[in-house]
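Figure 2 data, in text form.
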Amino acid sequence: MHPAPLRLLPEAELQVMVRDGDIVRFGHADAVGYVSVADRITAEVRAATLEPLLTGSCAVGGASAVWVHEGGPTPHLVTLATSRGSRPPQGVGGVRYRSTAPPARAVMLVGGVRVVRPWQALFDLLHDPQACQSTIDLAARLLGLNPVELLAEHPNVRRPYASLARRRATLALTSETREAGETTES
């Protein structure tokens, strides 16, 4: 079942279908999606739930981009990257706008929605002072990226919180190594 027909149904009918086990509700509180229990929730379907929140040249970034690409737990806030000086829509709850527009090469279309590439999502999380270490650890694991190598590949990018990013990358790598050691011992 394609998610588009479900969007046309009234909320009460969707809730009955969820209760009856016909469909599954997923996504963020302000960006909800519904799919049939027989369907897989793909990156395109996750991206489609965020489409109504995007305006202009916004791109889904940070933990939200990790969620779009790989799934996992839904982030508490949807992170949208906007160009510096652009005005985000007023009155939209649960959305965090960051005025750090990613370079054009770091953005891709996922189901018609602008989303930063996986490496850029992790790079942004490493430099985000509000991102918690567990989110960074999860992102590195889900995306299969080495955060220390990622920072080494982009040494000339001037960003605030560079020392914070290096420390977080090392912690994420240590966490990943520790978990791998626990798995082999079992």
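Caption note: The longest helix spans residues 162-185.
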